Amino acid sequence: MCRWLAYTGEALAPSTLILDAQHSVVAMSLNSPLGAETVNGDGFGLGWYPDAAPGAEPAVFRSIEPAWHDQNLREISRAVRSPLFFAHVRAAAGPPIQQTNCHPFRHDRWLFMHNGSISGFGTYKRDLVLDVDPSLYPFIQGTTDSEVLFHLALTHGLMDDPVAGVGAAIRRVEQVGRDAGVPFPMQGTIAVSDGSTLWAFRYSTQGRSRTLFHSADVPALREMYPDAARLEAFGDRAQVVVSEPLNDLPGVFLEVPESTVAVLDPDGYHHREFLAA
Question: How do 110-118 and 105-107 pair as beta strands?
């Protein structure tokens, strides 16, 4: 389907993770060992919150070029510094390759991206779209199930309570999907942020979700690997959630459990059950 990465912590050039890491996001776009598709070359997106501008609306750059081929991505990701950013590489599973179908999606100060699918989406797309609040409907620009899911979550209160909003949207997808004869409607991992907190969800109706990992605390990693020069690029509050580990060092990336929402905020990383049976 896709691969994605979300970073929060001290301001950092996105290129540090999406270009320069051992198994960077751009490397995943060419070869994704843990992905449903090996190659994710149907466009990409970068969304970032400006440094030293709390509450500011995020900037978004999206393209239908393969991430490994786009010089503008290299220029922007090296020039920008951000305390919280999203990166996404896409493997189109039906909806056309167009800029409005590339992640992340933005509404006001919120960013959203998704790896996975709503199974049988075309069969009951109309029912889900008609559930979107009329005030939000005009903001749906593309044709993907992910963008509809985002607007369903906004409809169900994501901006007040992201966990409850995403949960209610997924439950609605499952209800409508099952009514249409689809046994396992929801699959995927989701990232949501308001610029200060990052929520990362791993959930599927079948209980066999796409892979998702989070990084261990940087101070602990420095104790584990005192000679690892690459850690010098990160501050003590740096946290990453990513579809696949960015390097091969044992203990650096830990798997996010199934049916879980991971929360990364100024207090660090913690997680809890999400839509558990």
Answer: antiparallel
Nearest to 196 by CA among 50, 60, 70: 50
DSSP 23: T
pLDDT at 145: 96
223-258 pLDDT, tens digit each: 999 998 889 999 999 999 999 999 999 999 999 999
Would you call 33 exposed, middle or buried from its count of C-beta atoms within 10 A (0-12, 13-18, 19+)? exposed
pTM, rounded to two decimals: 0.95
What is the CA angle 130-133-137, rounded to 5? 75
Between CA 13 and CA 3 the distance in angstroms is: 19
Counting every residue, how long is the chain? 277
The rounded mean pLDDT for the chain is 92
What is the reported pLDDT for 198?
97
How many domains are contained in the chain?
1
Domain residues for 189?
2-273
76, 6, 217, 274 alpha-carbon torsion, rounded to 10°: 170
**What whole-number distance in Å separates Cα of residue 51 and Cα of residue 83?**
6
Token reading at 26: 């751009």
**Nearest-angstrom CA–CA distance, 252 and 151:** 34
Q: Count CB atoms within 10 A of the CB of residue 152.
A: 23
**Which CATH number is 231's domain given?**
3.60.20.10
Residue 205 CA, chain-centre distance (Å), reads 19
The helix-helix angle for 121-131 and 145-155 (nearest 10°) equals: 30
Q: How many CB atoms lie within 10 A of CB 116?
A: 22
Strands, sheet with 59-63, edge to edge from the N-terminal-most edge strand: 59-63, 44-48, 82-90, 2-12, 239-242, 213-215, 253-255
Give the tens place of pLDDT for each residue, 138-189.
999 999 999 999 999 999 999 999 999 999 999 999 999 999 999 999 999 9
